[in-house]
């Protein structure tokens, strides 16, 4: 099997050279682009690094590596990654395109919250995809959460969301997680449906967080996903999934910088415990080494 | 964010500077190549593929074929198109069926690539081609993947073999093996094995996939990949090639606003052809992949061939000729208009069709918001008229219009709008028809202009957006029975604002063999 490409191994050769020269910059550019940072961010990061190299009059690649790490960390740390779940019940809406891992994320998130002694109910508002409700039910059980199912197949997702919040209010459950059907950001009809779910829930209580789930393997399309979902669903935070693969998810930096929405959670595997909060330091460490 | 659409814009800009130059200097070419590089990277084409691609384009552009040609700029676009087609695999390839026994097709890919949905689409498509497919639930990993496959199978109306409940229990290799026996016993001629999603770096799971492959000895192993994937496409594709050695690729979720940079990467890195493209949520949104058409799509020259095919499939040629005749003799009535519209509805989603027209990228957003129920409303208006009124629209005085509006649940303004548009359309079509049959070049610009006008109208008047758009599609449909170079090149060319001129594009499309 081919050894997986990684940014750190790509950088290793470059930082092992005695001085910084033109090849170093070319290699750095290639490495950043291969990590899905995209041409724009890559260019601005490199310009920044070039300026620092001149400023500090260094020719040592080890300095460059440190500067790269600092630059990326600083850029990622600009926004506050804390989840705000203080109201009761705290309603969290989970949205995203098809196949990014929304349902899995909810399962892990429920476990994450029950570990802290919170009571959780999940709402199966993905009434569209075949067997999505069953998939969520399995995850809810593993995560130790209650579940509200649609009463009939193809029920209006907004009504499932409503019933879930209602149940939480009635039974005093602290946190409500609502799973929605995957939708491509270009389908305006489906995007409007998200707006409806939001409006319906807002009549009952304030929505604490709207989390947009992004797949780490996504390329520059991630930005257009984020823009559309922010517009229709009022996203407050990003969740980056499938980081355990070979993809590095560099595009999230572009997303975070262009939209001002922070990354809040990171998913790294299929196990129920594989969800953590986002720490720029750890993320960059994994990226640069 | 337009992705590959960008490439065309960028090239158009670059070429504007080149226009009129009899010769391209190396500096001109370098500038163009840089633009191509950036546009490809923004479209998520893998870096190594981009480097390779631009290198080849550059070499060829600097060579004799360009400097000696009359219009170097067009020659460069031609080269880009050639290279795109070459990377995407040249000829279209179909599924290879087994000579004896059931044909076994195995699906593999990352989690969330869309394997299970695709299994259903593939089965439905095979069924419509006269095969008897059976789906096999060998994804025992993801919670309720088995249930999902069963539901999908039911929707597609095909058999599903699911002996294990899944959710982490059972041995997928055994299931796959037993499935072949089952298919032999029950005489299914195609077996589609849905496997669990796995990461390229998960050695254990890759081994499992390889074992399934060994156990069932498939005729085709299809690697399903999300069209939205970024630079990781290369690593993942290589890992799967090493792990299970797939024979073909399927692009899924091609209906987002991505134009499929991954297609280029995977095809180029693995050398395996792309067999199918899956485009939507419905089980029917599935089509064979044509490299040359994808190249045109990437360059935003539209996908005329697919459009024509769809039109042909659903259009009665005789009927169309009759209509054309009516245009020429000025006897086209609202009645014919209604028939046309109903035929049009049979062709499927208007959005899809319009999206295939060249230069349609500027309209994409409007297309998405395009309200198909507008057609139904128009239909209702016409159906509320008496036969005589349909034949002689001049009869429609004020009180008749009020009656029609009430009968169809619309307003008089809407009825007026329809009648006016009908008159304009009839007039325009008459001019067209008198100019000759569609393949005569004079035909070209006219639908183009109408197409252009349809672009502005939705902005002004949201509720009326249906009709101009529909007219454009109708034009396409009318020309459809005689697909020729000129008919193809005519559509929508006038609607590329700021880009190359109409003649340039027309001759460009001739270059491209349209």
From TrEMBL, chain A:
Gene3D superfamilies found in the cross-reference section = P-loop containing nucleotide triphosphate hydrolases (3.40.50.300), Signal recognition particle SRP54, nucleotide-binding domain (1.20.120.140)
Residue span(s) of domain Signal recognition particle SRP54 helical bundle: 1-76
Indicate yes or no for the key word Cell membrane.
yes
**EC number(s) given by UniProt:** 3.6.5.4
**Where, per UniProt, does this protein localize?**
Cell membrane; Cytoplasm
- Top class in the EC scheme: hydrolase
How does the UniProt record describe the way this protein sits in the membrane? Peripheral membrane protein
GO cellular component assignments: cytoplasm; plasma membrane
Presence of the UniProt keyword Cell wall biogenesis/degradation in the record: no
Superkingdom is: Bacteria
Picking any one GO biological process from the record gives: SRP-dependent cotranslational protein targeting to membrane
Q: Which reaction does it catalyse?
A: GTP + H2O = GDP + phosphate + H(+)
Q: Which UniProt keywords apply?
A: Cell membrane, Cytoplasm, GTP-binding, Hydrolase, Membrane, Nucleotide-binding, Receptor
Q: Which Pfam families does the UniProt record give?
A: SRP54, SRP54_N
Q: What is its main location?
A: membrane
Detail which positions bind GTP: 96-103, 179-183, 241-244
Assembly mode: Part of the signal recognition particle protein translocation system, which is composed of SRP and FtsY.
According to its UniProt entry, what is the function of this protein?
A: Involved in targeting and insertion of nascent membrane proteins into the cytoplasmic membrane. Acts as a receptor for the complex formed by the signal recognition particle (SRP) and the ribosome-nascent chain (RNC).
Q: Which family does it belong to?
A: Belongs to the GTP-binding SRP family. FtsY subfamily.
Q: What is this protein called?
A: Signal recognition particle receptor FtsY
Automatic annotation (TrEMBL), chain B:
Cellular-component GO terms for this entry:
signal recognition particle
Q: Which GO terms describe its biological process?
A: SRP-dependent cotranslational protein targeting to membrane
> Which SUPFAM superfamilies is this protein grouped with?
P-loop containing nucleoside triphosphate hydrolases, Signal peptide-binding domain
Q: What class of enzyme is it?
A: hydrolase
Here the segments flagged for biased composition (Low complexity) are 435-456, 464-488
Q: Which PANTHER family match?
A: SIGNAL RECOGNITION PARTICLE 54K PROTEIN SRP54 (PTHR11564), SIGNAL RECOGNITION PARTICLE SUBUNIT SRP54 (PTHR11564:SF5)
Free-text note on domains in this protein's UniProt record: Composed of three domains: the N-terminal N domain, which is responsible for interactions with the ribosome, the central G domain, which binds GTP, and the C-terminal M domain, which binds the RNA and the signal sequence of the RNC.
Task of the protein: Involved in targeting and insertion of nascent membrane proteins into the cytoplasmic membrane. Binds to the hydrophobic signal sequence of the ribosome-nascent chain (RNC) as it emerges from the ribosomes. The SRP-RNC complex is then targeted to the cytoplasmic membrane where it interacts with the SRP receptor FtsY.
Q: Please report the name of this protein according to its UniProt entry.
A: Signal recognition particle protein
Q: Which organism is it from?
A: Salinibacterium xinjiangense
Name of the encoding gene:
ffh
């Amino acid at each position: 099997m081919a050894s997986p490409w990684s940014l750190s191994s790509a950088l290793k050769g470059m930082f092992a050279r005695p001085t910084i020269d033109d090849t170093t910059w070319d290699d750095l550019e290639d490495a950043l682009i291969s990590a899905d940072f995209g041409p724009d961010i890559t260019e601005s990061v490199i310009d920044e690094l070039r300026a620092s190299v001149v400023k500090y009059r260094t020719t040592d690649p080890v300095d460059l590596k440190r500067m790269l790490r600092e630059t990326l960390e600083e850029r990622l740390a600009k926004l506050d990654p804390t989840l705000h779940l203080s109201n009761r019940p705290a309603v969290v809406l989970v949205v995203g395109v098809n196949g990014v891992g929304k349902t899995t994320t909810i399962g892990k998130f429920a476990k994450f919250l029950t570990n802290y002694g919170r009571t959780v109910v999940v709402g199966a508002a993905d009434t569209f995809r075949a067997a999505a409700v069953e998939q969520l039910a399995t995850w809810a059980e593993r995560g130790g959460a209650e579940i509200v199912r649609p009463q009939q197949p193809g029920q209006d997702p907004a009504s499932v969301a409503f019933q879930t919040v209602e149940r939480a209010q009635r039974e005093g459950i602290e946190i409500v997680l609502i799973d929605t059907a995957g939708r491509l950001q270009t389908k305006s009809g489906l995007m409007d449906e998200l707006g409806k779910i939001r409006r319906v829930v807002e009549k009952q209580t304030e929505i604490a967080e709207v989390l947009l789930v992004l797949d780490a393997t996504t390329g520059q399309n991630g930005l257009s996903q984020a823009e559309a979902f922010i517009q229709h669903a009022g996203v407050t935070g990003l969740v980056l999934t499938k980081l355990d693969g070979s993809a590095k998810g560099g595009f999230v930096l572009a997303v975070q910088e262009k939209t001002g929405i922070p990354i809040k959670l990171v998913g790294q595997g299929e196990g129920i415990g594989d969800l953590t909060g986002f720490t720029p330091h750890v993320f960059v460490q994994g990226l640069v080494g | 964010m337009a992705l590959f659409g960008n490439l065309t814009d960028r090239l158009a800009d670059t070429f504007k500077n080149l226009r009129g130059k009899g010769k391209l200097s190396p500096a001109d070419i370098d500038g163009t190549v840089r633009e191509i590089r950036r546009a490809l990277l923004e479209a998520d084409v893998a870096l190594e593929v981009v480097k390779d691609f631009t290198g080849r384009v550059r070499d060829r552009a600097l060579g004799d074929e360009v400097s000696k040609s009359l219009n170097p700029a067009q020659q460069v676009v031609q080269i880009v198109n050639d290279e795109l087609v070459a990377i995407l695999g040249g000829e279209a390839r179909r599924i290879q069926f087994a000579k004896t026994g059931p044909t076994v097709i195995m699906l593999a890919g990352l989690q969330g690539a869309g394997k299970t949905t695709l299994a259903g689409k593939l089965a439905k498509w095979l069924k419509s081609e006269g095969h008897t497919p059976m789906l096999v639930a060998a994804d025992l990993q993801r919670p309720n993947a088995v249930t999902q496959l069963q539901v999908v199978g039911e929707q597609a109306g095909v058999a599903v073999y699911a002996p294990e409940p899944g959710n982490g229990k059972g041995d997928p290799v055994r299931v796959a093996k037993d499935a072949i026996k089952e298919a032999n016993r029950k005489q299914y001629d195609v077996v589609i094995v849905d496997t669990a999603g796995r990461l390229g770096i998960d050695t254990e799971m890759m081994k499992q996939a390889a074992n399934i492959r060994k156990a069932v000895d498939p005729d085709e192993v299809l690697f399903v990949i999300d069209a939205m994937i970024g630079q990781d496409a290369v690593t993942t594709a290589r890992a799967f090639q090493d792990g299970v050695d797939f024979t073909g690729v399927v692009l899924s979720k091609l209906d987002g606003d991505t134009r499929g940079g991954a297609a280029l990467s995977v095809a180029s890195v693995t050398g395996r052809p792309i067999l199918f493209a899956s485009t939507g949520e419905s089980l029917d949104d599935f089509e064979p992949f044509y490299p040359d058409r994808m190249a045109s799509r990437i360059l935003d020259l539209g996908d005329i061939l697919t459009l024509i095919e769809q039109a042909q499939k659903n259009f009665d040629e005789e009927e169309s000729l009759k209509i054309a005749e009516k245009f020429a003799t000025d006897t086209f009535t609202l009645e014919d208009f209604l028939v046309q519209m109903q035929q049009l509805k049979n062709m499927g989603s208007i959005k899809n069709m319009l999206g295939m027209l060249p230069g349609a990228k500027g309209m994409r957003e409007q297309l998405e918001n395009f309200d198909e129920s507008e057609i139904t409303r128009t239909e209702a208006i016409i159906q509320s008229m008496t036969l005589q009124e349909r034949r002689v629209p001049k009869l429609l005085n004020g009180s008749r219009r009020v009656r029609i509006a009430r009968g169809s649940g619309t307003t008089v303004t809407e009825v007026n709008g329809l009648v006016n548009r009908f008159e304009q359309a009839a007039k325009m079509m008459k001019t067209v028809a008198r100019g000759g049959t569609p393949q005569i070049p004079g035909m070209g610009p006219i639908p183009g202009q109408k197409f252009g006008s349809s672009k502005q109208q939705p902005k002004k008047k949201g509720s009326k957006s249906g009709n101009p758009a529909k007219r454009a599609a109708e034009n396409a449909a009318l020309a459809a029975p005689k697909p020729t170079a000129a008919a193809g090149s005519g559509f929508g060319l006038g609607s590329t604002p700021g880009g190359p001129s109409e003649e340039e594009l027309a001759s460009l499309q001739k270059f491209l063999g349209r």
